Fold this sequence. Notes:
Blueprint: H1 8-11, H2 14-25, H3 32-52, H4 58-66, H5 73-101, H6 105-125, H7 129-145, H8 152-156
Helix pairs in contact: 3-4, 5-6, 5-7, 6-7
Amino acid sequence: xxxxxxxxxxxxxxxxxxxxxxxxxxxxxxxxxxxxxxxxxxxxxxxxxxxxxxxxxxxxxxxxxxxxxxxxxxxxxxxxxxxxxxxxxxxxxxxxxxxxxxxxxxxxxxxxxxxxxxxxxxxxxxxxxxxxxxxxxxxxxxxxxxxxxxxxxxxxx
Length: 157
């Protein structure tokens, strides 16, 4: 068999391909200013809320802002509603499980196992990939929140 001839794009140096990629991604389009303004306002508000209330794992909260759809305002609102709904459901699952298991280390292990099982089951079965991913993302971040690091001396006293 004769191997297929390499495409012209593959023959160019990697830097040239990267430069063309950047030019294509950063090319102006109608409405780009509005998209940039929404991104800047949303990320700034999220970080102000994170810093004022000293939320744990504050850097992760910025990822939620960047996961919003920015095609138009309607899609942005739908994406935000999906994030909020997944957040509320996963926070409820985490809080109920934590209330039941915080006092006993054996129950804590079972809670972590059950939480991970629920998380992977929901991610694999929900038809909305966006909602399932956000549900699992929050549960994965909540597990270490209920297991704060202590120094060994504090545990012995």
